[in-house]
Write a structure and sequence with these properties.
The complex is a heterodimer of chains A (about 220) and B (about 600).
Chain A (H helix, E strand, L loop, with lengths): L2 H5 L2 H5 L1 H4 L12 H6 L3 H56 L2 H10 L10 E2 L6 E2 L33 H12 L7 H14 L23
Antiparallel strand pairs in A: 1-2
Helix pairs in contact in A: 7-8
Chain B lengths: L1 H34 L1 H12 E6 L6 E2 L5 E6 L2 E5 L1 H6 L4 E4 L5 E4 L1 H12 L3 H9 L7 E7 L1 H8 L6 E5 L2 E3 L7 H4 L2 E2 L2 E2 L2 H5 L1 H4 L4 E6 L12 E4 L6 E4 L3 H18 L3 E8 L4 E8 L18 H4 L9 H10 L8 E4 L22 E4 H7 L2 H8 L4 H10 L28 H4 L10 H12 L3 E2 L5 E5 L5 E2 L7 E2 L3 H16 L4 H4 L7 E10 L4 E13 L6 E8 L11 H14 L17
Parallel strand pairs in B: 2-14
Antiparallel strand pairs in B: 1-12, 2-3, 3-9, 4-7, 4-8, 5-6, 10-11, 12-13, 14-20, 15-16, 15-25, 17-18, 19-22, 20-21, 23-24, 24-25
Classes of the chains: A mainly alpha (about 220), B alpha+beta (about 600).
């Protein structure tokens, strides 16, 4: 840019020279090359405008990118939180899935272990195996397999007073599957009163110790 | 043309000036980009690059059905900056969700944290004010996500947090003896330690440029080293059966006052350990729940004199060598003294005069004298080789942490009494696992398949590797194993424990053991009692072995029999073993 002011003052010096001649109104017709060399407005506007547009687009693009970065960041946080949530939930689920929890809940609901398995051959109708009475309480004197992660609050019917009597009765009868039939019938009866099933469902649990097993053949 | 020269000089000056400036820039550029590059990059990265450790999660341990036995869980440490907290000594202004603000004093904030985390507010206050210049104090350790989120919602400006991944055992003591546990310094016991190479994840690092508000600049992440999660170890254990077995063995051990007990269920076809219960058994969530001797699996680590439960091994050797059959008559006197030092004798658990037993009868009556008489028929070397072939005296293929090999005395080491007694399980030692392996072999038609506890390791990329166990060996002929099982069936049908161990509808080959425990001054009053069984006897699928040590109230194998029967019934239910359709063959026990 500094070149312009240097050449500009030179012009007035040159101009007095043509004043000496009478043909002052004559001008040198520019050659084609000179005409072509003359700066043209349109391309300049287009070029500068183009650069402007590109710069603007770049600016907008980086604004959008930066905005996207925040969005990615926030979504990643969301995802991370969701993963943490999922971990926490599956941790709880695994705990609920533990045998100690299932057994305690099953017995709190009045369920007892089954007796011997008996098989029915569907093609011949033959029954194999020797059935026995229901096995009574599995937990007996309590769960021997400790799990400090579980607490009593996870038992579904922990508030029902009948469940505690069941446990003590069974523990008094000792361990083993053959001892719990008297204790389990009481829990079964208490369960039947709370569980008003439809049809004959309410009848069956009354005598779970004597549940019909297909050994009559 | 002086003016032209002037303008040309000016132009030259200008161009020179421009180039001089450019040259300066280039020099500076080279200086910055090349000479000082390293130093500057370092300075910059400290200011705007964040390097984070990405954690590889430790893999989980699951049972054969995919039930999680050990898992890594997220916990969070609540940390604080006392320096900043004391700036807010008069409290801070909390912006509520509805746009209002509340002034919260320091003590209020502390009591709110204490409330949520269930910690002592006094202790928190003391920790915060202990060193006012400190920028870091760990207030509450390892809180769960739900607690952490509540604390975060308090919006306390001087609180921060850090992840504290930890290990949880959702099934508690179920298989706790096998799973082991991880301490603060890494895995310490059981499968956690043994399979650490599969379970351990490797932490990675990633760096990125951050903005002033710590947001990652787009496209700037450079993962220096990716984190890899640990693999999943699948055990052969069935967690439900394991729980049942632990429950049964614990109940019975307490009922008879036993010091410890083990129960194993082995699938005879492939040697998979379906359940391996120990009493007492550690809850890996609470290492202090048992004494330090009960932190592992006694079934692998504690050898004992197994007693009569070894007799089928001896008889197998004799039958396999073609020396005897089930019906071979044996003269069983009231005492055995042949070849023993003067004054020594071997007797049976019950007093009797001269008896006429068959080999099957020796098994059924569990006669020590009968086995002693039979040892005369086979060389010391062959009898020793037979016990070794069954895997006695060497560690099982499981290679459990601290596993014992047990001892069988070689013909060179053995004395005149032990050469006889170790044929019925006294004067030699074995672990519960070795006894289980013996019964697996007899149940699997003489083919000893190495016991397996770890089924597979599934890496985080999904590739599954199976641990190498030893080769399957044919210890005795299939016909030998079948013959021995038929002899053992008489224990269930006619033996003294028949009322305790017989399960109607099922043919079961069983053997009991009542072994005296040596206490330094010879044999004392304590016994280790056991019952082993194979179901179904004609084509065994599962072996069940229950052992109780030093029962106080009942000092015979009748102490172990109820737990054995309970577990056997559960095995029938769990694996849907159908009742036998054929009757047990007639095997004469006397002549």
């Amino acid at each position: 840019m500094s070149a312009l002011p240097v050449t500009a003052p030179a012009r007035p010096r040159r101009s007095p020279q043509p004043d000496a001649t009478p043909r002052r109104h004559l001008e040198v017709a520019p050659t084609r090359a000179q005409r072509r060399a003359r700066p043209r407005l349109l391309p300049a506007v287009i070029t500068i405008g183009g650069i402007g547009v590109i710069l603007l687009a770049q600016l907008l693009l980086s604004i959008v990118l930066a905005d996207g970065a925040y969005q990615i960041s926030s979504l990643q946080t969301q995802k991370h939180n969701a993963v943490l949530q999922q971990h926490a939930l599956s941790e709880t689920l695994d705990l609920y899935n533990s045998p100690q929890h299932l057994a305690a809940n099953a017995e709190a609901l009045g369920m007892v272990a089954s007796g011997n398995a008996v098989y029915l051959d569907a093609s011949t109708g033959a029954v194999t195996g020797t059935g026995t009475a229901a096995g009574g309480s599995l937990l007996g004197a309590g769960d021997q397999v400790s799990n400090v992660l579980l607490d009593g609050s996870m038992i579904v019917t922990a508030q029902a007073p009948t469940t505690t009597t069941t446990t003590t009765k069974t523990s008094a009868a000792g361990s083993g599957p053959t001892s719990g039939s008297s204790a389990t019938s009481s829990s079964g009866a208490s369960q039947a009163s709370t569980d008003t099933g439809t049809g004959g469902a309410g009848q069956a649990p009354l005598t779970p110790g004597l549940l019909p097993s297909p050994t009559t053949h | 043309m002086p003016t032209f020269r002037v303008s040309r000089r000016r132009l030259a000056l200008t161009i020179f000036g421009v180039f001089a400036v450019m040259a300066l820039f280039v020099v500076r550029l080279v200086d910055i980009q090349l000479v000082q590059a390293e130093e500057l990059t370092k300075q910059a990265s400290v200011r705007q690059n964040a390097s984070v450790v990405t954690y590889g999660t430790r893999g989980s341990i699951v049972d054969t059905n995919g039930v999680v036995l050990a898992d890594s869980v997220d916990r969070f440490d609540i940390t604080a900056s006392p320096k900043i907290a004391l700036l807010y000594i008069d409290g801070f202004t909390r912006k509520n969700a509805d746009g209002t603000t509340t002034k919260v004093s320091l003590t209020d904030a502390i009591s709110q944290i204490a409330n949520i985390t269930g910690s002592d507010p006094q202790a928190l206050y003391a920790a915060l004010t202990k060193d006012a210049t400190s920028d870091y104090v760990n207030l509450v350790k390892a809180v769960k996500l739900i607690v952490f989120n509540k604390v975060k919602a308090l919006n306390i400006p001087w609180l921060s947090s850090e992840p504290h991944p930890t290990r949880t055992y959702p099934n508690g003591a179920v298989a706790g003896n096998l799973v082991g546990f991880v301490g603060t310094d890494g895995p310490q016991a059981g499968t956690e330690l043994k399979q650490d190479s599969c379970l351990a994840g490797t932490n990675g690092t990633s760096t990125f440029e951050k903005s002033a508000d710590n947001v990652r600049l787009p496209g700037s992440t450079v993962v220096t080293k990716p984190a890899t999660d640990g693999g999943t170890v699948t055990l052969t254990i069935d967690s439900n059966l394991q729980w049942f077995a632990q429950q049964a063995v614990a109940n019975q051990a307490q009922a008879v006052g036993a010091a410890w007990g083990t129960a194993m269920v082995v699938r005879v076809g492939d040697g998979h350990i379906m359940a391996d219960a120990d009493y007492p058994s550690v809850d890996p969530n609470d290492r202090n729940s048992v004494d330090r001797y009960s932190l592992g699996a006694r079934s692998f680590t504690t050898p004992y004199e197994p007693g009569s439960i070894m007799k089928p091994a001896t008889v197998s050797g004799l039958v396999d060598a073609g020396i005897v059959t089930a019906a071979t008559p044996v003269d069983v006197p009231g005492r055995f003294t042949d070849g023993l030092p003067a004054g020594s004798y071997i007797k049976d658990a019950f007093a009797h005069g001269d008896m006429h037993m068959t080999v099957a009868g020796v098994i059924m009556n569990s006669s020590n004298i009968g086995i002693a008489e039979l040892t005369k028929l086979q060389s010391e070397k062959d009898r020793y080789a037979n016990l070794i072939k069954f895997g006695l005296g060497s560690k099982s293929s499981v290679g459990f942490l601290g596993e014992a090999a047990g001892t069988v005395k070689t013909p060179q080491q053995v004395d005149s009494i032990t050469t006889v007694t170790q044929q019925f399980g006294q004067g030699m030692t074995a672990t519960s696992a070795q006894v289980a392996s013996l019964y697996q072999t007899i149940g699997n038609d003489g083919k000893k398949v190495p016991l397996t506890l770890v089924q597979s390791c599934t890496a985080s990329d999904g590739t599954v590797t199976y641990p190498t166990t030893g080769a399957t060996t044919q210890v005795v002929k299939a016909s030998t194993a079948q013959s021995v099982r038929e002899m053992m069936e008489t224990v269930t049908t006619q033996g003294s424990l028949r009322n305790l161990i017989n399960i109607p509808g099922h043919r079961i080959a069983a053997k009991s053991g009542t072994a005296q425990v040596a206490d330094g001054n010879g044999y004392g009053k304590d016994y280790i009692v056991s019952v082993a069984g194979l179901i179904p006897a004609d084509k065994p699928q599962y072996a069940v072995i229950v052992t109780l040590a030093k029962p106080a109230t009942i000092k015979t194998s009748a102490a172990a029999a109820p737990a054995y029967a309970t577990i056997m019934k559960q095995v029938i239910k769990t694996f849907r073993i159908q009742p036998s359709t054929t009757a047990a063959p007639f095997v004469p026990v006397a002549w």
